[in-house]
Amino acid sequence: MCIHISVKRWRDKVNGNSYFSGLIFRDGVIVAKMPFQYGYGSHPDAVACVALRDAGIVTNPRACYATSALEDMGIPCTYDEAWTTKRECKAHGL
């Protein structure tokens, strides 16, 4: 099993807020989606952890971040992040 977390980010320059959306793949198949939402820093990694817990992949109820939880479980994980337009960011998590 291999997990890939794909995150798109957008920054609202007028108001100074950051947003993201994401998809989580298990062996190339989408297992969870993170819809367009407010968040900055490592927030996408934390939301991915909740999504993976809901999908039954992460079993530790106290895990905070997907990448570290998967590493602790010995599951290979890749994580990519890209700054995009608002349109691309919104469409990515649908």
Short recap of the structure:
The protein is of the alpha+beta class. 29% of the residues lie in helices and 39% in strands.
Strand percentage, roughly? 35-45%
Which structural category fits the helices and strands? alpha+beta
What is the global morphology?
A: globular
Helix count equals 3
Counting DSSP E segments of at least 2 residues, the number of strands comes to 4
Report low-confidence residues grouped into runs of 5 or more: none
Helix and strand sequence: EEEHHEH
Distance between the termini: 24 Å
Give the mean pLDDT: 95
Biggest sheet details: 4 strands, mixed
Report what the structure shows:
It is a single chain. The protein is of the alpha+beta class and 94 residues long. 29% of the residues lie in helices and 39% in strands. The protein is built from three helices and four strands; from the N terminus they run E-E-E-H-H-E-H. The chain has helices spanning 43-54, 66-73, 86-92, and strands at residues 3-12, 17-26, 29-38, 77-83. The chain has a four-stranded mixed sheet with strand order 3-2-1-4, with helices on both faces. A hairpin with a 2-residue loop joins strand 2 and strand 3 (29-38). The radius of gyration is 13 Å and the shape is globular. The mean pLDDT is 95.
In terms of topology, how is this protein built?
Blueprint: E1 3-12, E2 17-26, E3 29-38, H1 43-54, H2 66-73, E4 77-83, H3 86-92
Parallel strand pairs: 1-4
Antiparallel strand pairs: 1-2, 2-3
